[in-house]
Amino acid sequence: MSRSVSALYAEVGLRGLPKILGLLDRNRLSPTYGCFDKAYWHYRTAAFPSGMAQEFVLPLALVYRYRFPGGEGYVGQPRLREWVLAGIHYAARSAHRDGSCDDYFPYERALGAAAFSLYACSESALLLELRDATLEAFFRRRGQWLIRHGESGLLANHHALVVLALYNVYLYTRDAAFRHAARARLQQLLGWQSAEGWFPEYEGCDPGYTTATIDFLAKYYRKSGDAQVLAPLRRAVQFVADFMHPDGSFAGEYGSRNTYLFFPHGFELLAPQVPEALWLAERYVQGLRRGLRVFLEDDRLIGHLTYNHLQAALDCWPQRQGGLAPAPGCRHWPEAGLYVYRRDSLYAVVSLAKGGVCKIFVNDRLLYGDSGLIARQRNGRCLVSHLIDRYESTLAEDSVTVGGYFGYVRYRLPSLPAVLAFYAFMATVGRLGRNAVRRVLQRLLIVGKRRAPLRFRRTLRFAPHVTLCDEVWDLRPRRQGRRQLVDLYAGTDHTSIYVAMSNAYHPACLLPWHDYGAQLPQLWQTGYLRVCRTLYPERVQP
Asked: What are the structural domains of the chain?
């Protein structure tokens, strides 16, 4: 059984290799030899290379070093080893003098990109025993930059990866300063953990990103044996177990960052110590067999889960029995703003922090899911009910009610004048205050909310039948103002904040949107609209 699970992990990981190799500049005489950002070196549509892209060296190192089922043709290929070395050297060559790197805009000095690429480069060097003075100098320089710098916004997964990357630099250099720095950052990170077990991502809890934090800390635990991390990991695993769906899919738009992420390697590593980790890994494998994983396979993101599945294949826990499922019953996680309803054959997750975003399953079938209400005004401006806020909520035995205000959203696209002005600003004044610039961008694209004069209330009932009632109040006094609203949907998969790993394809996206447009005249005339739907007409059976 363990071999078939390992082969499945390997199959998923190996699928990304041809694309990753196609992103690499493989020309030894090219000035960008070793660069994985094809938009920069080949298409030439970018003005600088993304430092994050250099993490793609790690999948190449793994398939060069280890014989995976279906990957025999990669093992020991001299050019793969050469490309790994070239990729690390390019990461060093393209970095700023202080060791930092950019990701989305010039002089960004992005902590996430620096940590991801340092972990991948140092892990590759350790795997392939690449000893090189240039590499060591680069690892030290970037590690020291990570020690001295943080970032605006609270993204726990980035800091967990900093812990892991710094520990790798210690393993490579044997300089105890990096081990001490890793432990200091770990203490800071553990102080952020909620009493409920999750780690914060911007404004709240995202179960998908929590699996990334679990993965990075589990890797650190395996390398360091640092026992202080095991209890926090156990709490985090027990928390995320509630968000593994009956069909083997995981998380979704009800998280603070809208992700379906699941990093399996950390759960395989923790399986001997944490029974819930083994249960999660097994349920995830069932989802893999059914094609229910998230597909992060674009040019920027394909590396993360490619190497993670390869690592899971290597460290697949052989004893697949004895996993511990979450305790039956309903659970409210007030700090996370999440409610899990689990009775008889019905399982549902409702986000109280995001206005009633939900997913509902009967047995192991996804019955319904949506990202809340989305409306459009005649001027093109959109309003949504799912921005994180302090919504009013009521939990009854078999129902959930959530209500509050819609928020305005803007789908901001770059224009040539704006991009030129921004680049000019970053090349002069902005480069001196990268975190201030980042804070402004986060406010514009992620955490800002402006309330609209439109209220909603959503009521989900789970027994004896599954029903959904959406109510909307237009608080504008004049009928003409009400007629500005021209579209209203309960949308399946719409999101409104910028998150790199959201909006990836997942089979749940195939659920249809529900159009409330035919009921809008009622809202125009009375200022009130109520739409009730029966989602599951049969009585839910044990």
From this structure: 2-314 (1.50.10.100), 343-536 (no CATH)
Span 244-257, pLDDT tens digits: 999 999 999 999 99
pTM of the model: 0.95
Please tell me the number of Cα atoms within 13 Å of 497 on its side-chain side: 27
* C-alpha–C-alpha distance, residues 214 and 238, integer Å: 11
First CA to last CA distance, the chain: 30
Q: How far apart are CA 255 and CA 236, in angstroms?
A: 15
- Note the pLDDT of residue 1: 44
Work out the average pLDDT over 157-176. 97
Q: Which residue has the tokens 């980790």?
A: 277
The 3-state DSSP class for residue 371 equals coil
Rounded Cα distance between 409 and 380, Å, is 11
Where does the pLDDT of residue 538 fall: very low under 50, low under 70, confident under 90, or very high at 90 and above? confident
In this structure, are residues 123 and 173 in contact, taking their beta carbons and an 8 Å threshold? no
* Residue 532 zone, left/alpha/beta (φ > 0; ψ -120 to 50; rest): beta
Residue 338 has what DSSP assignment?
E
Q: How far apart are CA 470 and CA 140, in angstroms?
A: 56
Strands annotated E in 233-355: 331-333, 338-343, 346-351
Residue 82 CA to residue 105 CA, distance in Å, equals 29
Which residue type occupies 248? G
Preceding omega of 246 cis (within 30 degrees of 0): no
Query: From CA 257, how far away is CA 235, in angstroms rounded?
Result: 21
